[in-house]
Design a protein that fits this description.
Layout lengths: L1 E5 L3 H15 L4 E7 L5 E7 L9 E5 L15 H19 L5 E4 L1 E2 L2 E6 L7 E7 L9 E7 L1 E5 L21 E3 L4 E9 L5 E8 L18 E2 L1 E3 L4 E8 L24 E9 L17 E4 L3 E5 L9 E8 L3 H5 L5
Parallel strand pairs: 1-4, 5-18, 7-13, 11-14, 16-20
Antiparallel strand pairs: 1-3, 2-3, 6-17, 7-10, 8-9, 10-15, 11-12, 12-13, 16-17, 18-19, 19-20
Helix pairs in contact: 1-2
Amino acid sequence: MQVILSAQDQKDLHYEVECILRMFLPQVRLRFCQEPEAGERESVRITTGGGEGLENTVSLTLGDFSGTEGEPASGNRKDTEAAVCRCLYRLLARAAGKGISWGVLTGIRPVKLVITNYPEGQSETFEVENNPNRPEDGVRTITFSREIYVEAEDFLETPVPKYKRLYPDGPECRLKGAYLIKCTGCRKDENGNVVEIYAVYDPDSRGGNPADGRKVKGATIHWVDAANAVDAEVRLYDYLFGDPAPDAPGKDFLEELNPNSLEILTGCKVERSLAEAPMPEQGKSATAYQFMRQGYFCLDNQDATPGHLVFNRSVSLKDSFRGKSGGKP
């Protein structure tokens, strides 16, 4: 994806935004250039997660990094980081009209969930929206059966305060676009790792709404049908540097590199529809997808093939529970 930032003050842009962007986006490349669309003013072009010739270009002003249009970002680094996050989310929301497919169901750290009272061998279909903010983008059909994959983080054997996802005898939760379920237990392997979650469903809650109108106290859980899921490799990019000012006086920026800036996950589960996603040309970007509650991803333009899907994360989405519990967003 390509972003053009029209800079009213090049020094402010460079000092307050560039360093933080490099923390957020390990693949970021910046260069100053003249942009006719910006009235021949100095701009900076940011390219992330791909190469040149990218299809999507979104114009942003320096005001996008502040609370008030035209007001430079403050010198407070924490406030500026928050502003950069808001800007990146705004950017991707704007780009949604230019090729981003929203709301893809995935399990990047999958664990199998068995709905014990759902008939064995039965399968059905549901329609889910492609983009909840753009009804004109239509719907797609997904399958549902007795065994599905959910995110491992959506289950805790022993819940913590304010946890509203799956745990034994916990609240009813919605499976996105499907049914209400209630967790009944789990199975672990010899090392104590949860390998299966068990739940029962309400057959009268198709679409996620109970027939009697009762209030659902649990969270909405995204899922993938185990019978039709496709394997994928997912690359999670994090802060490139562990220090917000790696090039400050007296520091060697190489020593500030974050050794965990890239995490590669294999065996991830994604919707079968992604198996038909067009492969990007080398040096060009692919269609971007929002993996629900995870972030924005695109196919790797070098390593992805029809038989080996590889997705790179450009921007993560804030997890409200992790945020409240003080965990990493």
